[in-house]
Amino acid sequence: MTGEAVRAGCELVVAAGGDGTIAVVATELLGTETALGVLPLGSIMNIPRMLGLPRELPAAAAVLASGAVRTIDVGETRGRPFFEAGSVGMNAAMFREARKWEEGDRTSVLRTIWVALRYRPARMRVELDDRIVQTRGLTIIVSNGPYTGAGMTVAPGARLDDGRFDVRVFERFSKWELVRHLGSIAFGRRAYAPSIRTFRSTFARISSRHPLPARADSRDLGTTPVEFRVRPGALRVVVPQEGLPE
């Protein structure tokens, strides 16, 4: 139906649902003049939060009626788009459990923390626009926007309209630092972030000595090596008049 709306020249298609539904509709609108509107009906709502949209339906509907159209970037990996973040290593392993939160499994948070505590650093190579980073790290997150997974603030400085990823390299944490970090970024908080380096790049290719799990949003990508690229301004969206969040 989304494709039919695009072919008919519709100016707006509204996705009513959670992040998965929004992503399905948005994928069909990439590179077109048809804008995406959102009525948030899911539990976590990373994409609406990144767009600065209210969770209350009457307020979200008011944005559709009086908001502004902006263009945002989209990530791409293995021929398919992603809207939040790609990850390699610990986060990819964690998100296999964390995404079950949206399915109603409230014990998934505890299992996610257990996976994190058992995970060990691995040797990884990250090729970026202007440098190569060698690390023995826990995880690398290639962020299009600030949030991913169970509402985790993985890249607080990432913007949807700057044409670049925030590539976050998470290196050695003590167990206590790791527990504090996971608590600090859950559900939108961002208070504590030790041992993290951030790079900005339109491209990231991540390889490793041994295969490591990789994901993009809720999609399993198998294992490394994996490449991520930005599609600048690929999607038109309706946001509040004041624009995207800073």
Can you put this structure into words, describing what you see?
The chain has 246 residues and is an alpha+beta fold. The protein has 7 helices and 16 strands. It has helices at residues 2-7, 19-29, 46-51, 57-66, 90-98, 108-118, 175-185; strands spanning 12-17, 35-40, 68-77, 80-82, 85-89, 122-127, 132-137, 139-143, 147-148, 152-153, 165-170, 196-201, 203-208, 213-216, 219-223, 226-239.
Give a short synopsis of this structure:
The chain has 246 residues and is α+β, with helices and mostly antiparallel strands. It contains 7 helices and 16 strands.
How do the helices and strands line up, and which of them pair or pack?
Blueprint: H1 2-7, E1 12-17, H2 19-29, E2 35-40, H3 46-51, H4 57-66, E3 68-77, E4 80-82, E5 85-89, H5 90-98, H6 108-118, E6 122-127, E7 132-137, E8 139-143, E9 147-148, E10 152-153, E11 165-170, H7 175-185, E12 196-201, E13 203-208, E14 213-216, E15 219-223, E16 226-239
Parallel strand pairs: 1-2
Antiparallel strand pairs: 3-4, 3-16, 5-8, 5-14, 6-7, 6-13, 8-11, 9-10, 11-12, 13-16, 14-15
Helix pairs in contact: 5-6
